[in-house]
Specification:
611 residues, two-stranded antiparallel ribbon, Sodium/glucose cotransporter, mainly alpha
């Protein structure tokens, strides 16, 4: 075993503490489903915001982020637009408020609030549950691949074994152990456990991130970095082609760029913006992000919680990413080249921790990264059972089930989903392939129907159902068909086809069936107050309530979104400029951050408080 007894003790103490918290909070969480899944809507918004930030600080995502920073340099700050990362800005500006006004527990319940209890509403309700379960299984597979690859770098015990006819490598066995511990404390403590442990995890990760940045700043000079990277590596701006040539420094990285399919960088950015607008307007997918919005006490607090998340997340996270990236570039080339033809750039982060982080701090950092993984994983497996138990079992099978039985079934459904997700994770090829499929294909199928549900009154439950079916089928079938003719095509370029299939299915399903009940539409419009194409519904509401005021905030919201995206980006690039000793760029970035913060305070935050 490579870790010192001090580091192992720190990690062990943290794991025991999280399990204790889960069991300690289990009584409070098991009162009913609202307490278990939403914390009874009693958790402070700033705790939920810190929890949400911690949930986005996961090992798999951090490993991927360090990898792309290592390969693409400062241009890597654009690549997370694949999700897109700025969907959080859309949520912060207006979607969190719209969603929280529903007063429901899950995204599937929200669908019933939007489309009613008719046939279309019931089918839409079921298809959202199906999407939620599929996405959670996909993310469990993603986490399984990441945590196993991370753990095997530090622990040298041979845990390979044969189980039920399946051969488990040491990497897979480590992943199973860590996932098992996480599942245990999450099952017992529910949302209270998730938030409590994630706040603690966020504090640990912030301390560790700052410490790593200090270590890296003292170990690596600007001249050392310049000597090992190609021209324009330290420039965040780009042309149509990537123009990043590693041939004379690290030729294997050119192969990595080619396999990623990111050579036409300008085209990639355009596609990410196109996809990002639709994906962001669609709103949060039915997972942990949506659950935290629904857990807040008021719509205004939902918006504040969503705004706190990027504010506290990006700067410390990218301090760590930038620090590990520059240390790895200067010192890790021999280890990576030594892998030969099996070189795995996704191991840059764990190798850097193993090589550069001193005793004690290594234990704290590993505890923090394990905490981040456990927090994100816990959030997913806490969110998903709500759909199975509350939206299927309670709604259609046993409406009179006791709270005790519902919570018990939540334990069971979490356990089953983890098993299925781990099964898929056993066959995952890489973090990058899972990331691209989740962000571009699966979420691509979610976008069309979920944009229309906000902005168009005529869009009905049957349109939503067929739009989601078209999107889900398209996310599986379209990539397979396209790769028959274009084997190297990456998922982001297939997104327009998936979107077209989903939009087509949505329009046909809507126009072939009757509009939803006007009473359902009036209730939704009056309570949620979205902007968009709602004229017939607005007129019906005004007949009953002449004092009703429609939402005229579209220009303000667009302005705040554009300012918010720039604001968020400054917190991503500033740590890189600090680590590269680019003082001029760092000062300009801080000025832009201050200016955008003032604008958001005036036109977003103050407006929320008035509402």
């Amino acid at each position: 075993m490579d870790l010192s007894w001090i580091d192992v003790s720190i990690i062990g103490a943290y794991l025991l503490m999280t399990i204790f918290l889960g069991f300690w909070l289990s009584k409070k969480a098991s009162k009913n489903l609202e307490a278990y899944f939403l914390g009874g809507n009693k958790i402070k918004w700033y705790f939920l915001g810190l929890s949400n930030a911690s949930g986005m600080f996961d090992i798999s995502g951090t490993m991927w982020t360090v990898t792309i920073a290592f390969v693409y340099g400062l241009k890597s700050v654009w690549i997370p637009w694949l999700w897109p990362v700025w969907n959080q800005i859309f949520v912060m500006v207006f979607l969190a408020i719209w969603m929280r006004r529903s007063n429901v527990m899950t995204g599937a319940q929200w669908i019933t609030f939007r489309f009613g209890e008719g046939r279309g509403g019931r089918l839409s309700h079921i298809i959202v549950v199906v999407f939620a379960v599929i996405s959670v299984i996909g993310f469990i597979a993603y986490f399984f691949e990441g945590i196993g690859k991370f753990a095997i770098t530090f622990f040298s015990w041979d845990l390979s074994a044969d189980f039920l006819g399946i051969h488990l490598s040491s990497q897979q066995s480590y992943a199973l152990i860590i996932i098992g511990i996480t599942t245990l404390y999450t099952l017992k403590g529910g949302m209270f456990s998730v938030v409590s442990t994630e706040v603690l995890q966020f504090i640990i990760m912030t301390i560790a991130s700052i410490a790593i940045a200090v270590v890296a700043y003292n170990m690596v000079t600007a001249d050392q970095i310049a000597a090992v990277v190609p021209e324009s590596w330290d420039n965040m701006f780009f042309s149509w082609r990537l123009d990043l040539d590693w041939s004379n420094l690290f030729p294997e990285l050119n192969d990595k760029i080619a396999s990623d399919g990111f050579g036409l960088f300008g085209c990639l950015i355009m596609m990410m913006i196109f996809k990002g607008i639709f994906a962001s307007l669609a709103g949060p997918v039915p997972s942990y992000d949506m659950q935290r919005i629904l857990s807040t006490r008021t719509p205004a607090e939902a918006a504040k919680m969503s705004g706190l998340t990027p504010l506290v997340l990006y700067f410390p996270r990218y301090l760590m990413v930038a620090g590990f990236t520059v240390m790895a570039l200067v010192y890790l080339k021999p280890e990576l080249v030594g892998m030969g033809s099996n070189i795995d750039f996704e191991l840059v982060l764990p190798l850097a921790i193993k090589r550069f982080v001193p005793v004690g701090l290594q234990g704290l950092l590993l505890a923090g990264l394990l905490a981040a993984f456990m927090g994100t994983f816990a959030a997913f497996i806490n969110a998903a059972p709500a759909y199975l138990v509350n939206d299927l079992y309670k709604k259609y099978v046993n409406p009179k089930a006791s709270d005790k039985r519902l919570v018990r079934y939540s334990y069971l459904s979490s356990f089953i989903l983890v098993l299925i997700g781990v099964g898929f994770g056993l066959f995952a090829t890489s973090l990058n392939s899972l990331t691209l499929w989740l962000t571009s294909s699966l979420y691509g199928g979610y976008a069309a129907a979920n944009v229309l549900k906000w902005i168009w009154w005529r869009f009905n439950g049957m349109g939503y159902f067929w739009g989601m079916v078209g999107g889900l089928l398209g996310s599986v079938i379209a990539p397979a068909l396209v790769r028959i003719w274009f084997p190297e095509a990456i998922d982001i370029y297939i997104f327009p086809l998936i979107l077209l299939l989903s939009f087509g299915a949505s329009w046909i399903g809507t126009l072939m069936t009757k509009p939803d009940d006007m009473e359902t539409l009036k209730k939704f419009y009056k309570q949620t107050k979205p902007w968009g194409f709602w004229k017939p519904v607005k007129e019906a509401v005004l007949k009953e309530d002449p004092q009703f005021k429609e939402n005229k905030d579209l220009p303000r919201d667009i302005f705040n979104i554009l300012i918010g995206i720039v604001w968020q980006m400054t917190m991503v690039v500033l740590p890189f400029y600090i680590m590269l000793r680019n003082t001029q760029a760092a000062v300009i970035t801080m000025v832009i951050f201050a200016a955008t913060s003032i604008l958001l305070k005036k036109y977003w935050y103050n407006h929320i408080n008035k509402q």
